[in-house]
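User: I'm writing a tutorial on reading structure tokens. Could you give me a worked example: one chain, its sequence, then its tokens, then a sentence or two explaining what the tokens reveal?
Assistant: Sure. Here is the example chain.
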Amino acid sequence: VQLQASGGGLVQAGGSLRLSCVSSGNIFEINQMGWYRQAQGKQRELVATVTVGSSTNYAASVKGRFTVSTDNAKNAMYLQMNSLKPEDTAVYYCKQMTMGGRVYWGQGTLVTVSS
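And here are its predicted structure tokens:
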């Protein structure tokens, strides 16, 4: 399974970006997908997750500003990021977990928010 993340870039504070993650795997084997981020010098942290039943979970720092969604027809997951802050600057990774517990990571896409 390969995950292809895209959509990162440079944006001013207060702006928006939409990240995409396309999976080559079998959508019927997916249990959960999620977005994580890693800022320079910090540990990777959870941003948002979405389950096969469309249940979502967000980090407190992004709740109300970020929205995770999926498109089953395209085998894709998205992260709509609004009201971006400089502290949102990080490499964003998508993650997929199958029903069997296998975990796959995408290659990451860099988001830079300037003040």
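What the tokens reveal: The radius of gyration is 13 Å. The chain is about 0% helix and 55% strand.
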